[in-house]
């Protein structure tokens, strides 16, 4: 599935590669409870290592990746995949 965010980031994501994954679900519960490390792991699991790095580079301004923009992109990606936009 091709996902494109409002900022123009595009990535092809194979939903089957992470659906029905108990360990990912555990991480998502931890992320929902405010565990920032789990949030990063969830994003990496969904995007893959290369996709995660590409998103960071897409958002990098003056050498810095905004945490606020990263979270916004993450929520857009989850929404596009049919996830929950609760955070």
Write the layout of secondary structure elements.
Blueprint: E1 2-4, E2 10-12, H1 22-32, H2 36-59, E3 60-61, E4 64-65, H3 67-80
Antiparallel strand pairs: 1-2, 3-4
Helix pairs in contact: 1-2
Your description of this structure?
Helix 1 crosses helix 2 (36-59). The mean pLDDT is 90. The chain is built from three helices and four strands, in the order ββααββα. The protein has 87 residues and is mainly alpha-helical. A hairpin with a 2-residue loop joins strand 3 and strand 4. It has one domain (2-80).
Question: Helical proportion?
Answer: 55-70%
Note the total helix count: 3
Shape: globular
Total domain count: 1
Number of strands: 4
Strand content: 5-15%
In the predicted model, the low-confidence regions spanning at least 5 consecutive residues are: none
- Distance from first to last alpha carbon: 23 Å
Q: How would you spell out the order of helices and strands?
A: EEHHEEH
User: What's the gyration radius in Å?
Assistant: 12 Å
Largest sheet: 2 strands, antiparallel
Average pLDDT, all residues: 90
Q: Which class do the helix and strand fractions yield?
A: mainly alpha
* Major β-sheet strand ordering: 1-2
């Amino acid at each position: 599935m091709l996902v494109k965010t409002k900022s123009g980031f595009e990535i092809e994501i194979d939903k089957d590669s992470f659906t029905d994954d108990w360990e990912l679900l555990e991480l998502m519960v931890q992320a929902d409870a405010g565990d920032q490390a789990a949030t990063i792991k969830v994003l990496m699991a969904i995007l893959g290592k290369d996709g995660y790095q590409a998103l960071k580079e897409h958002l990098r301004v003056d050498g810095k990746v905004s945490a606020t923009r990263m979270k916004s992109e993450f929520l857009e990606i989850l929404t596009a995949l049919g996830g929950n936009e609760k955070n």
